[in-house]
Structures are given as C-alpha cells and as structure tokens.
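step 3/5: co-fold with magnesium ion
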Amino acid sequence: MEQRELFNIAGREEFEYIMRVFGACTDDYLFFFDLDENYYSISERAAERFDLPSNHFYNAGEAIRKIVHPEDFEGLKRDIQELREGKKTQHNLEYRWVDRQGKTVWISCRGVIATEGSRVLIGRVTEIGSKRKADNITGLYAERRLQYDYQNIQSEGIYKRGTLLRIGIDNFKEVNERYGMDVGDDILRLIARCLEKVSGANRCYRLSGDEFAVLMMEDDVQKARKMYHKVRIMIEQDRRAEGYQNFYTISAGVVGFSYRELEFEQLCNFSEFSLGEAKKNGKNCSYVFSQEDYDSYMKSIDIQEKLRHAVNHGFEGFEVYYQPIVSAKTERIVGAEALLRFSCEEYGMLSPGVFIPILEESGLIIPVGEWVYQTAIQQSLQWQKLIPEFRININLSFIQIRKSDVVSGIMSSIEKAGIDPCTVLFEFTESGLISYDDSVQELLDVLNENQVKIALDDFGTGYSSLAYLQNLRVNLLKLDRSFTSKAVRNDFDYSLVGYIVEMAHSIGMTVCFEGIETREELEKLLKLHPDYIQGFYYGRPVNKENFYEQNLTKYNKVS
Ligand code: C2E
Ligand code: MG
Ligand code: MG
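step 4/5: write tokens
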C-alpha cells in the first residue's frame, strides 16, 4: 500500500499511533508535517533530545526554527516553500539541528508528500553524526564524508589535481587530561571554526580524534601551508584573548596529488605520514609530503620487520663487532668497544646509524641490547685469558634503561659469567643524560656500587658540564670524532680539548679520544694527555675472529 493511500485511509491520530509503534523499532525519528495546517508530529525521543514544545504541535515553522542551526535555516525554508507550492514532492536534506545542550547535530531528513489534497510530508530524520558521516562536536563533516567526496570528485573527473591539508593537535590527550574534556571539545570547535574561515570554498572535515582535514580543489601545497599558518595565528589570538588559560599547538601535513593516480586509502596513508613527520620534526610546524621521504620511511618499516624476524629467530643476522681501545701511554691494547652490526639478504650490512634508531623506536633494542651485553661479556672473558685486565665497553640505549629492568639483567649477566665487574664499562650518550630521571639514577647507583664502570659517549656533541658528570660518578669521558678532528685543525678547539682533559683528570675521570684515523692526528693529540685512544688508526670494528687476528696477537704477542 502506498503511503499516500495509507494517510488517506488513516486519520492523524491513527497515523500518530502507527508512528509510535514503528518509532520504537528504529533509531531514526519518524515525522509527519501537515504543511497546510502547519502541524508537526515527531517521535517522542526527538522531543526529548531537541527543544521542541512536545512531540506534536501547531506553528511548526516557528518551533522548528528554534532547533535548526541558524546557518541552515534559510536553505530549509526554501525547500519547504517549494513543497508547499507543489514544485516538488520529495524532501531530502542534510543539515544541522542544535540539541538541548546547544550542541550541533548533523541530520539527514527525507520525506515525501503523501496526500494529494492537503500537503502532508511524511518521513524520517537520521542523526548522521552517529553514523560518522558528520561530527557532532565541531559540526564539520566526518572522515566517511571525506572518502565519499574524494571518490565522487575522482569519478566525475572535473578536477584533476588537489591538495589535502591534514591538521592535528599536538598532545591532545594531555590537553584533555590537564584541562578537562569540555575544554578539549571547545578547542576542537575553535579549530573547526578557524578552518572554516580560512578554507574559503573548500570543504573541512573532522577526522578521528584530534585531526582535521581540508580538501582543496587545486594543487597548491604552499596555499595549504598558508592556511595552516593562518589557523595558528587565529588560535594564538584566541589564546591571548582568553588570557592564556590553556596551551596547545597544532601541526600539519600537506599532500598535493592527482586524483587519477591516487586512491583514497593511499591519500590517507600519505597525509597521516606527513602529519607524523611534522610532529616528529618538533611539532607546531608543517610538512609537505615527499615521495622520497615516504619511501625511506617504508624502508625503515621493512627493516623493522626484518629486525623483528631476526630477534625471533635466535638473533640471526646480528653480529657484535669489536674495535680496539688502546692505552695512550703504552700504545698497547687495553680493551674493545662492542659495536652491533646487522645484515640481511635484501640490504646487506646496515650501519648502526640506520638500524639502532629503528630498534629504539620499536622497543626491540631491549632484547637486542641484552643479547649484545651477554655476547660481549662472554667474549671478553675469553680474551681475558690472553690479557687478564682486558676491558669491554658496551653501549646502552636509554630506551633499555627507561623501559626495561636492564640493571637486573646486567648484574645477573655479570654474575653468571663470573667476570670481574671492574672490567665491564657501559657507555651512555649525552642526549640521554639530559632527559635524566629516576631510572637513570638507579642504574648509575647500582653500577657504581658494584664497581661496574660508566662512560659518557660522544662528549662534546651535547651540553653536559663536567661538574654535572662528576655528580653522576662517570668514570670515562669519550670525546667524539666531530670534536677531536676539529681539535687537530683548529687552535681554539685544540686548547679547549686540552682544558677538558685537564679538568676531567682533576675530578678523577679518565678520557678517551675517539675517531683517530692517522699517525699525524695521533701525535698531535697525544700531547693533550688523553688516557685512551680509539680510532681507525689502531683498527676498525671487526668481527671476533678478525679482532683476535688483527689486535690481540699484534699488541700482546700472545699466540
Ligand atoms: P659510538 O658508540 O660512538 O661508536 C663509535 C663509532 O665511531 C663507531 O661507529 C665506530 O665505527 C666509529 N669510529 C671509530 N673510530 C673511527 C674513526 O677513526 N673514524 C671514523 N670516521 N669513525 C670511527 P658505528 O659502529 O657505526 O656505530 C655508530 C653508533 O651506533 C655508535 O657510536 C653507538 O652510538 C651506536 N651503537 C653501536 N652499537 C650499539 C649497541 O650495541 N647498542 C647501542 N645502544 N648503540 C650502539
Ligand atoms: Mg660508544
Ligand atoms: Mg662515541
């Protein structure tokens, strides 16, 4: 039976009854709107959620005006007028209502004129925000809608190229925790309003959580960056006006693209990557997509998979190399630094500069680091049979210290191996010491109590002062090649290194110069009285067999 006949058969009361029954079976709100009588009836749930006089009322136009978003009312009025004048018989609009809390609610309203004589519109209202095509907090379209729009433009073929600007709030979780969810929602709304203002005719979307997007109809990444900067300025002005009650920043990723070449999913990947890069670059900035950067990022993901596979297969592909450390006085070998290597079929041997950051980011440095110190301690024990005081230097990453119980692991490895703890030395980098916390202090205390030695690696690349290092009871300073090579070429740096050595000695630390490559460098730097030398001049890092061949037989004449 057609709706038109149904309404003719049933009177208004019967119809309201039917609406109540069907209304209980759906999340939508069912309604009928007698346009001639200006009488409106809707499911009771709608009258509870929105500020309507009741679930049925006369003077419908006036009552509805109260719940429609002011910007959308004119459009709705025009549509109803056309229905009234018989210019059309179908109503199908997506627009915004405002709920009793004053929050925007995106709705889709569809109906048909169901009677011939008098004009009665019958239909349903769906909250599309709850179906994620629009966002109730900011009033913007949601991610699903971005996909829908993108694919439409793609299939229409009118626009060939475009730009996607993706904006994210930095540390939004902290903002919510510190200032509360309501402030968080206000910030989302503010950014949405700013974006709408700066984006002109382009559509804005709220993506998941704390992210927004603008889909621009032209390929102009610089324009997108300008848009982002304008939003930043507007936010700053708002914060000033509010008396700096809260603090947050935003970052942006920008992708210029061709509709023909890029599927929506790929665009999402590229824009997520771009925003991620902006955040990695220190936040509060923008990043424009580069295929080259993306490829190297994908390569690092691939390397990470290979590293994970190796960890789960007995550390296959990992190898510990050793580089000699020589006494500056006697020029005899006193120990070695253990340096990790990784090789796989696809990439050959990778440099630690490439794979150590990946191990750190993925947390794999925890099992791998443990494997390194266990392997290196065992190896050192072997070489102590030849040189009893042989010392092994092992690098430790701050991820191991913060995110694992590395101190117990180290101490139990030392005990199990039965090695003299004085002959084991752990190297830390300056950057880690700066973000120093309780876990670092605990580790340093335990190592000190147990006579395990501590070195500060790459000294001269950061900002730590000697006095501060003395408090941490660091035993050895390792001066990075970037520093020692400058000292060879430049008088000022030469004197500076000389003072550092003197001061370090005066507070009971020893000093190792790293990166000595030639006899000439060595002779010049030896005059500054370092305790140890490490560099290609005495030997490159090599595997244990070559280390034995090249170093132990040569310096100590042991067979
Ligand atoms: P590092 O601890 O400062 O190690 C010294 C680096 O300087 C080594 O690079 C070594 O090959 C290089 N080097 C030594 N002498 C010379 C020289 O005369 N000239 C030049 N140009 N370079 C020299 P490598 O092996 O590539 O290691 C790089 C960095 O990777 C290490 O710097 C260390 O920070 C990290 N790393 C290596 N193995 C491990 C490990 O097992 N765990 C952790 N956490 N980091 C490691
Ligand atoms: Mg080192
Ligand atoms: Mg170093």
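step 5/5: annotate
The two ends are 103 Å apart (CA to CA).
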